[in-house]
């Protein structure tokens, strides 16, 4: 472990120590949580590090949070790793992110993949390299029969793009006579989303201080609860997750009813 990584680990442990602890109701754990993993670049800049160092620290946080979610009974976790808009970033940063994702997938047995976790990648894979696509398919096939929590990694993902894709699939089904236009309802459209076999998203979390969805799970978030934090993603700990879940448990989810 490098000096930078050691200092980062020490700082994160200090954050964990000073973050107030809360109790959560283990009988009311959200089944599906979405996380916009934001703030890696800002975290690195504040420490005089490269943005790629922030993304690497964020990958370690994902390991910790996925492990914690598995322990408390969260069945589905969808994380925003790279959006359809992120290609606008500096090429060196994009290349570093893609290499990190490949490294993450390659080391799955030493990370969360070795803990009975089913791993899936959602999003448009057409712009990903052949090397990364091959590794994704390998990991998905290797973990597909696991019975633990499902980790959906949103990669080259956009909520609008996902809805457009579903609309095209529905139009194709109509043209092929597989369904009538009147048969296209919310349930059918939901089935065409990348997360079609997952339950609705109960809670969406965004760290780093920003308070917007940024094109994440637009269809799936119709009745999601939201929780925002000023903590950048690399400093996000299981205690922060507990605080988010405790806040979620205080809310009265009426789903449009009284």
In words, what does this structure look like?
By secondary structure, this protein is an alpha/beta fold. It has one domain: Decaprenyl diphosphate synthase-like (Undecaprenyl pyrophosphate synthetase). It contains eight helices and six strands. Strands 3-4-2-1-5-6 form a six-stranded parallel β-sheet, with helices on both faces. Helix 5 links the parallel strand 3 and strand 4. The longest helix is centred in the first third of the chain and has 22 residues.
According to DSSP, the number of beta strands is: 6
Strand content: 5-15%
Order of helices and strands: HEHHEHEHEHHEEH
CATH superfamily: Decaprenyl diphosphate synthase-like
What is the 3D form?
Answer: globular
Poorly predicted ranges? none
Throw out a few tags for this protein:
258 residues, alpha/beta, Undecaprenyl pyrophosphate synthetase, 8 helices, globular
Quick synopsis:
With 258 residues, this protein is an alpha/beta fold. It has helices at 3-18, 40-46, 51-72, 91-106, 130-143, 159-175, 186-191, 238-250; strands spanning 32-36, 76-83, 118-122, 150-157, 203-206, 225-228.
SSE diagram, text form:
Layout: H1 3-18, E1 32-36, H2 40-46, H3 51-72, E2 76-83, H4 91-106, E3 118-122, H5 130-143, E4 150-157, H6 159-175, H7 186-191, E5 203-206, E6 225-228, H8 238-250
Parallel strand pairs: 1-2, 1-5, 2-4, 3-4, 5-6
């Amino acid at each position: 472990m490098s000096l930078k990584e050691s200092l980062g680990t020490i700082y994160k442990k200090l954050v964990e120590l000073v973050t107030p602890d809360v109790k959560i109701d283990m009988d009311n754990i959200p089944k599906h949580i979405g996380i916009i993993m934001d703030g890696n670049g800002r975290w690195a800049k504040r420490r005089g590090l490269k943005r790629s160092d922030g993304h690497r620290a964020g990958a370690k946080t994902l390991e910790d949070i996925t492990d914690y979610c598995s322990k408390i009974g969260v069945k589905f976790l969808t994380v925003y790793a790279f959006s359809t808009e992120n290609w606008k970033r500096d090429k060196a940063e994009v290349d570093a992110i893609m290499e990190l994702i490949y490294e993450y997938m390659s080391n799955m047995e030493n990370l969360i993949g070795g803990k009975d976790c089913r791993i899936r990648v959602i999003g448009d894979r057409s712009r990903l390299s052949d090397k990364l696509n091959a590794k994704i398919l390998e990991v998905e096939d290797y973990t597909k029969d696991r019975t633990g929590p499902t980790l959906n990694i949103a990669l080259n993902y956009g909520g609008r793009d996902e809805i457009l894709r579903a609309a095209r699939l529905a139009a194709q089904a109509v043209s092929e006579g597989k369904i009538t236009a009147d048969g296209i309802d919310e349930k059918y459209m939901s089935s065409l989303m990348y997360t079609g076999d997952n339950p609705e998203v109960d809670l969406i979390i965004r760290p780093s201080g920003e308070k917007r969805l940024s094109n994440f799970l637009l269809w799936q978030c119709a009745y999601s609860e939201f929780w925002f934090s000023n903590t950048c993603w690399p400093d996000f700990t299981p205690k922060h997750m507990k605080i988010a879940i405790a806040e979620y448990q205080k809310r009265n989810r009426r789903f449009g009813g009284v």
